[in-house]
Automatic annotation (TrEMBL):
<dbReference type="Pfam" id="PF18029">
    <property type="entry name" value="Glyoxalase_6"/>
</dbReference>
<dbReference type="Pfam" id="PF00903">
    <property type="entry name" value="Glyoxalase"/>
</dbReference>
<dbReference type="InterPro" id="IPR029068">
    <property type="entry name" value="Glyas_Bleomycin-R_OHBP_Dase"/>
</dbReference>
<dbReference type="InterPro" id="IPR052164">
    <property type="entry name" value="Anthracycline_SecMetBiosynth"/>
</dbReference>
<feature type="domain" description="VOC">
    <location>
        <begin position="139"/>
        <end position="254"/>
    </location>
</feature>
<feature type="domain" description="VOC">
    <location>
        <begin position="10"/>
        <end position="125"/>
    </location>
</feature>
<dbReference type="InterPro" id="IPR037523">
    <property type="entry name" value="VOC_core"/>
</dbReference>
<protein>
    <submittedName>
        <fullName>VOC family protein</fullName>
    </submittedName>
</protein>
<dbReference type="InterPro" id="IPR041581">
    <property type="entry name" value="Glyoxalase_6"/>
</dbReference>
<dbReference type="InterPro" id="IPR004360">
    <property type="entry name" value="Glyas_Fos-R_dOase_dom"/>
</dbReference>
């Protein structure tokens, strides 16, 4: 993992906590074209790096079936000082779930949650800017926080992590803000308080695809499920899916003006 460049606590990485490594390898290798470091040593360590061609793009983390934790995509934020960021998170109403720990030759990792209890990782000395801008099939293209406590969570990210938030919409029907503005935006916060009890708060990971409809059909063939059918938006044609073990993620076929 390369070194950081002017981190703004922006999403820099996402990996999958999964209870079935074999199923996840089959699903994502065929859906996104990922190649996995799936040797005995990686399996024993419980972490399988994922590559697109020779570029590291993600990873799979083994989820013990007895842990009680659901299979889920985890978002990580690129910070200049992980110790200071973790302290600030606790100071502003969040919690520290994993104190900063050194990852050999990579950097320092911590896990926190915001005042709503939504977990997110902090990582120092990691730069995935090229992955975010590539918009190639199978690369992470966007990260978005869905919250039922919009004001408190937005305040937390402003005060604890220094986010400069730009309002996209502030109507009762649609409240949304971004870290940064317009084409320079790096993440979003979406108010889902009015969407009913079935709406789940948490970070959402979006991946670029060449053809949203074909990707949805393939995901279903591989044992996944469609949560939201493909639909057009300003950003491109989008869909929300479950993988074969129930982890939720989204896909976007980017429009030309976002390329």
């Amino acid at each position: 993992m390369p070194g950081a460049r002017e981190p703004r606590a922006e999403p820099c990485w996402a990996d999958l906590l999964t209870s079935d490594l074999g199923s996840a390898v089959e699903f994502y290798s065929r859906l996104f074209g990922w190649r996995f470091d799936d040797g005995p040593e990686a399996r024993a360590e419980g972490y399988l790096p994922a590559y697109l061609d020779d570029q590291l793009v993600s990873g799979l983390v083994h989820n013990d079936r007895d842990s009680g934790a659901p299979d889920v995509w985890t978002t990580y934020l690129n910070v200049a000082d992980v110790h200071a960021a973790a302290f600030a998170a606790r100071l502003h109403g969040g919690k520290i779930h994993l104190k900063p720990v050194e990852i050999p030759e990579q950097g320092t990792l911590a896990m926190i949650s915001d005042p709503e209890g939504i977990g997110v990782g902090l990582f120092q000395a990691f730069d995935a800017g090229d992955l975010h801008s590539a918009r190639r099939h199978g690369t992470r293209i966007w990260s978005e926080l869905h919250t039922k406590h919009f004001d408190a969570v937005a305040r937390f990210y402003r005060e604890a992590l220094g986010w400069e938030l730009s309002t996209v919409s502030d109507s009762p029907e649609f409240r949304y803000c971004t870290l940064g503005q317009g084409s320079e935006a790096l993440a979003g916060i979406y108010d889902i308080a009015g969407q009913g009890p079935e709406a789940q708060a948490g970070w959402r990971t979006y991946f670029a695809v060449d053809d949203a409809d074909a990707s949805v059909a393939l995901a279903e063939l591989l044992g996944g499920a469609v949560i939201r059918e493909p639909q057009d938006s300003f950003f491109g044609r989008m869909a929300v899916l479950h993988d074969a073990t129930g982890a939720e993620f989204s896909i976007i076929q980017p429009t030309r003006h976002r390329a």
